[in-house]
Amino acid sequence: FADGNYEKAIECAKTFLLFFPNDEVMKQNLAYYTAVLGENLAAPIQPREDIRSYYQRSLMEKELLFFSYDVFGIPFVDPDTWTPEEVIPKRLREKQKVERATAARISEEIGNLMKEIETLVEEKAKESADMSKLIREGGPLVYEGASVTMSSKALNGSQRVVVDGVLSAEECRELQRLTNAAASAGDGYRGKTSPHTPSETFYGVTVLKALKLGQEGKVPLRSAYLYYNVTEKVRHMMESYFRLEVPLHFSYSHLVCRTAIDEKQEGRSDNSHQVHVDNCILNAEALVCVKEPPAYTFRDYSAILYLNGDFEGGAFYFTELDAKTETAEVQPQCGRAVGFSSGSENPHGVKAVTKGQRCAIALWFTLDPRHSERERVQADDLVKMLFSTEDLLQETEQEPSAAVVVGKDEL
Fold it and tell me: Which Gene3D superfamilies match (predicted)?
């Protein structure tokens, strides 16, 4: 065909169709060659004589062999896939059909069994990994006054902890005042004042913005510095409690307040923040969490530090991957922190704030320094510039390295 020899091309095509007469591609090729050469010239061309002789002889031999198999029980396994069905005796055809169906069923059952085994192995591996995490967690909190009130066991999951006593009542009030003075509507959400639900307003401020406002005298610099130090405190506690072998780096820090809009609470059925996972896209129907952009796939640990509890609703809760089956609930209160790993093992959400204002510091961390928050680096530099070495050393000295007695739920 490539050389323009359509006679040979037709001969080859007809030879091939001797063995596979229903091959659509070759039938189309033959039709094309015939159209190019012309019907009157193509019609007399026959398959190669030696191949046709082989084909006919093979069919006769197969008929004898199948007859022997059918009548005398002498086994014959046909090595070819091109043998016409009519060559095989009807009784053998029926037998082979049953055998093929049986083989297909057995193959399917084996495949299903292998899948079940793989699933069991994966589940066992996950259980082992979860158990390993459970065994690893439970390190000292390194700050006096802080104590574990709920561990992973009490929270019905893995890599979860609730710590109380992270802030004093006065520190909570000071940070709330900072939020109300410095926060912008829709901060972090392109100015959307109600990014998660139309029934609440959302205000937030980052560490760097708070420090800059403090530098400009628009908010108390001491309050901005407290905000900065509190985030460092939570980071150190997370590293120590979860016994991490490498340091955590800030991925994002946000001091936020959610305020219920009174006139939009009647008949409300949505959440303050729907159930999600921090480093993957949750598909609750399929029970999977896809770790790909736009998810923040580099986030490894998360924490929320609450500043108050004088509001209605707004509970934090963990669920299964279905986003419906609740596994644990945490009621916010001043100085209470919830820490957890950011993966699919910890879907979570926030129930509707139906009255009042709920304020908290939300923190996300990464183990990969390449994804460290740029604003944090700027904040670190600004702190070094604004505060003397003595101030910084004094803050460091206030961070005890000794272990603190933890709550009764500690593993």
Answer: q2cbj1_9rhob like domain, Tetratricopeptide repeat domain
